Fold this sequence. Notes:
This protein has one domain: Sandwich (Jelly Rolls), CATH 2.60.120.10. The protein has 134 residues and is mostly beta strands. The protein is globular. It is 11% helix and 49% strand. Residues 1-12 and 14-21 have low confidence and may be disordered. The chain is built from 2 helices and 13 strands, in the order ββββββββββββαβα. It has helices at residues 114-121, 126-132, and strands at residues 2-5, 11-14, 27-32, 35-42, 46-49, 52-53, 57-63, 65-70, 73-78, 81-85, 92-95, 99-106, 122-123. The strands form 3 sheets. It has a 6-stranded mixed beta sheet with strand order 1-2-5-11-8-9, with no helix packed on it. Strands 3-4-12-7-10 form a 5-stranded antiparallel beta sheet, with helices on one face. A two-stranded antiparallel sheet has the order 6-13.
Amino acid sequence: MKLKKISNNISIVHNNGDIVTTEYIPVSHEFADQLYVRSMKMSKGQLVKGAIHNDSHVWFLMTGKVSIKNNNKIVIHEAPCYTISKAGSQRYIYAHENSIFINVHKNPSNTQDIKKIEQELVSLTQEQYEQKNK
């Protein structure tokens, strides 16, 4: 996890595809039958660049306000809300307020091995995404 400070109010965290709890952006993991739920707590002023998602999934903004850039379009979301993230998307998320962001992914093998889930759910490059989705 790399943190780059842009100003006193804005930090960029690039997760390099790692789905882990960090001191910068706390992440928690929950599991239900064939589902993986990932909760991320963002502080006001943080900007996250996510990995490329291999599959469509649902995400929820439980608290706060964020701007999300996806495919050169920026949309502001205020909690509570949810939407569908399409396969191949890579989001940049900026927190205008302290926010809780939840992703719900399929987990057909019911694994609780975060590294294995990460390998199935995300790609780090467009080339890797295209290879996984042939």
